[in-house]
Amino acid sequence: MTTYFTKTVGCYCCGGQVEVRGIASTNSFGFSDLDFRPAEMARSTIATYPQYCPNCHYAWYDLNQGDPASPDAIQTSEYRAFFREGQTSLSDQFAAIASLADLANETSIRIRARHHRIWAADDAKDSQLATTTRLELCELIQKTNYAFEFSFDDSPNPGTETYRISTLLIQIDLVRRARNFETASAFLLNLRSSAGDNRFLTEIAQFLGERISDHDSACYTFGDALGLAERVPQAKDLDPLSDYLLRNHGALLKDVERNALRTIAAGRNQKWWMTSDPAILKLLEAGKPTLASHVEQRLKTEYGISVSRCPKCAAPLRTPTAKQCARCHHSWRPTSHNTM
Ligand SMILES: [Zn+2]
Ligand SMILES: [Zn+2]
């Protein structure tokens, strides 16, 4: 579930008070795209990334911050063109941010705004804009020698080598999806030589090699690349207690617990353990029943929350207010007879 908040901030450029929306909490369930775009629900929060002042048209990630050059820059006709007729698309807002970041020479925002603009263009099915922005971003990454601080293997302590490889994966995806397969092949050679004996990277490189030689520019996730796409855990893969905890108390779970419960959901396949986080690995070693009851115990101790169970067979219910057991089908719904 995604929850939002609104707050009022002072616009850096005009000083006006603007109400902006932010994300209080969200989650993503499944694999991110190969350019690290998160899975749902986080995927759909993109519209809250840019903050926009309707008074002066200033757009930035934090409206109360900015560069000294921005108040003048937002007066120019080039900048105003992003907001013609007072209407602006999400990809225009990211373009406006990118243009101000270019002037301010803020490398990470120059990169980030273009990355987000691509996702907005994909969502708007504007493939031409998505393609040109992909090529532009790839060039900018090379020119600035930028490294995304993403971890391709979910490492809790990623270092510069992890960031370099994650960035390389993004570059390959950018040019492949823009149908520049020749450049994609060149980047892929670099990935192969960096892969060493890392099983994830070897499998991803293999997958990308096939896509590139097929001239395939479609969107794929890490799950696709590792042959796991059809194995994204569903509620039916989960044991009843893990399902109950994720379904009803997901927001109270620590990230490590949430990830471990999901990872274990499809525990038959070792490849699911695509994490090098020692905290998750330790929980996973404990095994499914131990892990879920450990979480149940913690919620009870810390929040006084008890898991609702079937009065007949003691199986966890689907929700705290359920009136029928999914396991033994025992039902205690009040009937018209006994409520009279
Ligand atoms: Zn303003
Ligand atoms: Zn029951």
- Our Rg estimate from Cα atoms comes to 24 Å
What's the SSE pattern?
A: EEEEHHHHHHHHHHHHHH
Low-pLDDT segments:
268-273
- The end-to-end distance, rounded to whole angstroms, is 38 Å
In words, what does this structure look like?
This protein has helices at residues 70-73, 77-80, 90-104, 107-123, 127-144, 160-177, 181-195, 199-213, 222-225, 240-249, 255-265, 278-286, 288-303, 336-339, and strands at residues 3-10, 17-25, 51-52, 59-60. With 340 residues, the chain is mainly alpha-helical. It has two domains: 3-225, no CATH class; 235-339, no CATH class. A two-stranded antiparallel ribbon has the order 1-2. Strands 3-4 form a two-stranded antiparallel ribbon. Helix 4 runs antiparallel to helix 5 (127-144) and helix 5 (127-144) runs antiparallel to helix 6. The longest helix is centred in the middle third of the chain and has 18 residues, at 127-144.
